[in-house]
Amino acid sequence: xxxxxxxxxxxxxxxxxxxxxxxxxxxxxxxxxxxxxxxxxxxxxxxxxxxxxxxxxxxxxxxxxxxxxxxxxxxxxxxxxxxxxxxxxxxxxxxxxxxxxxxxxxxxxxxxxxxxxx
Length: 118
What we know:
The protein has no helices and eleven strands. It has strands spanning 4-7, 10-13, 18-24, 33-39, 46-52, 57-59, 67-72, 77-82, 91-99, 105-108, 112-117.
């Protein structure tokens, strides 16, 4: 079953912006953290930004100052505003959610492609 759904991916030019959004299914409850990861061809999946239930966020060094993550606890959604995009940001972006129900584990979305071209 699809438990996290991402949207907002696409193709942009260098310096452009995109906003990714992710919504957790109704069956997922007790969310502790939500975040975004990405995987470029030939590379391992890496964390991009994570935000906890108190609103505290952490970012990968490569995106600090350019990306902003935000979470709406009531709506069980998380967004990633990406500005000043670089070609190095090209990857499949995955939404992740640490929750306790129906099972205590990390839930993943199917991924959305972000392509930044020059």
